[in-house]
Design a protein that fits this description.
Elements: H1 4-23, H2 35-52, E1 56-60, E2 67-72, E3 80-86, E4 106-108, E5 117-119, H3 127-142, E6 149-155, H4 165-171, E7 180-183, E8 195-200, E9 202-211, E10 217-218, H5 219-222, H6 229-238, H7 261-267, H8 274-281, H9 294-297, E11 303-311, E12 321-322, E13 325-334, H10 340-353, E14 360-369, E15 372-373, H11 379-392, E16 397-400, H12 407-415, E17 419-421, E18 437-439, H13 440-459
Parallel strand pairs: 3-6, 3-7, 7-17, 8-16
Antiparallel strand pairs: 1-2, 2-6, 4-5, 5-18, 8-15, 9-13, 9-14, 10-12, 11-13
Length: about 450
């Protein structure tokens, strides 16, 4: 890929300004109040793909938010890369914890990013990483160096479970036909330690409701005589882990595949400082399942976490009340072979069974997806590895991630192709949190590396 560094240097300011404009649009798919902004973002992505050199770009309607599809087919005999990304973002709450408004992007220097990072919701997840692919495409088409065919599928519902993507993929298999799928919605170990994500956890997300009396009650007149839903729900949730932080749901671990000592030893070679990890999070100790390291707990082991819990009076001052209802949202991160629908059923059966008399319990499944592992001997992985070697000067480390991209397993099932996860974010980028950011160096390094993937992938077909 000739002149890529000089091209990036020449267009750096424009690349940054274009991303900043995209980040200004609050494309929050979870909140219907932002519907017009989500649709506006889809229009912006369409225009960007057209300007990047795609000769077909369309906004494809779904029952929810649209999917932006683009393609450039230069020779049907050449391999095809399908790029997936998403243009929707997480809600920015809590707003008071942001140092600057989440949809007013600013560039600030940090210890990890002395040359600056863009602070905004979606900066890393996934607008910044998705847009790297658009700019890499621009470079290859404008310099006449695109070595194979490329297709883009950019959706607007990833942050709410990609409810309509499965239908779109099943109904458009010919349109989406490809030889490999390329995604940048993950991270790497460090700026000087490149890595490629080879495994993702699955997800089961549920909401639970515990109801006691038919109305809120005076805690003096009824306290101690009537089941308190908030007390009950906290006890029920606490019982979902034992003293070793092992999940107590019967059958939960039946399909969990334990990694061999050799595989765990390979994982342990990745550089990791427990002291630095604790310092970054301002904690004095780590916590988790007995018998596993921190990096194993957050990648190769399943988890169950409460994401939100509420009920009763939470306003200023005091109100002596026993609430009629209490609620919680719970996510379970799953490892490959655990089926998310089966786990959801196991959770529901168990949670209903442990409810004491005096309360009624409802479990509402939200969304989920399967885990995924990609082999490191595939031609796609090898092409990605060579690309990182060129731009980073060293081979990347294969790494399993604790996060979930449920549609990756769907892609392999429906499109029969492997996914390569070339992420350029860092764990410290605060995705889904206040002060999300993406390093300028990382953004530009992604634009530099991606075209080399195309080059080596195309060469593997010759």
């Amino acid at each position: 890929m000739e002149n890529i560094k000089s091209y990036i240097k020449e267009h750096k300011d424009r690349f940054l300004n274009e991303l900043i404009e995209l980040l200004k649009i609050p494309s929050i798919s979870a909140d219907s109040a932002y519907k017009n902004d989500v649709l506006k973002t889809a229009d912006a992505i369409k225009l960007s793909l057209e300007e990047a050199g795609c000769n077909i770009v369309e906004i494809c309607p779904t029952d929810g938010y649209p999917i932006v599809y683009g393609e450039k087919i230069i020779d049907k005999n050449l391999p095809t890369v399908l790029v997936y990304g998403h243009y929707d973002v997480q809600p920015p709450d809590p707003l008071n914890l942001w140092d600057s408004p989440p949809f007013e992007p600013i560039i600030k220097s940090t210890a990890l990013h002395p040359d600056g990072a863009i602070f905004a919701r979606g900066a890393c997840d996934d607008k910044g990483q998705m847009y790297m692919h658009v700019k890499a495409m621009e470079f290859m088409t404008s310099t006449n160096q695109l070595p194979c065919n490329v297709k883009f599928m950019i959706e607007g519902e990833e942050e709410v479970g990609s409810a309509n993507l499965a239908t779109f993929v099943k109904n458009n298999q010919k349109k989406l036909k490809n030889d490999v799928i390329l995604i940048s919605d993950t991270g790497m170990i460090a700026k000087d330690v490149p890595s490629i994500t080879t495994g993702l956890r699955g997800l089961s997300y549920v909401e639970v409701e515990v109801t006691g009396p038919n109305r809120d009650l005076h805690s003096g007149l009824y306290g101690g005589a009537v089941a308190n839903p908030i007390n009950i729900i906290t006890k029920m949730i606490a019982s979902l882990h034992d003293e070793n932080n092992h999940i107590t749901i019967p059958g939960f671990y039946d399909k969990v595949e334990g990694l061999s000592k050799e595989e765990r030893a390979e994982m342990a070679k990745a550089p990791f400082s427990l002291d630095a990890y604790k310092k970054a999070l301002d904690i004095d100790a780590v916590y988790g399942e007995t018998g596993y390291t921190t990096n194993e707990r957050n990648s190769i082991r399943p988890t169950l976490d409460v994401n939100g819990i509420w009920g009763g009076y939470i306003g200023e001052g005091a109100k002596t009340v026993i609430a009629s209802k209490a609620y919680a949202k719970i996510s379970m991160r799953l490892v490959p072979h655990q089926d998310w629908e089966e786990i959801t059923k196991l959770f529901t059966k168990h949670f209903m069974a442990i409810a004491p008399k005096g309360v009624k319990v409802k479990v509402k499944p939200h969304h989920g997806g399967q885990g995924y592992v990609t082999p490191i001997d595939s031609i796609g992985y090898q092409a990605a590895s060579k690309a990182y070697e060129v731009t980073f000067g060293k081979a990347p480390i294969p790494q399993r991630s604790g996060g979930s991209i449920p549609i990756v397993a769907l892609f392999e099932q429906e499109l029969k192709s492997k996914t390569i996860l070339m992420g350029f974010g860092l764990d410290s980028d605060a995705i889904h949190s206040p002060n999300e950011h993406f390093g300028i160096w990382n953004y530009l390094k992604g634009i530099e590396t991606i075209p080399h993937f195309y080059k080596y992938f195309a060469e593997s077909f010759k």
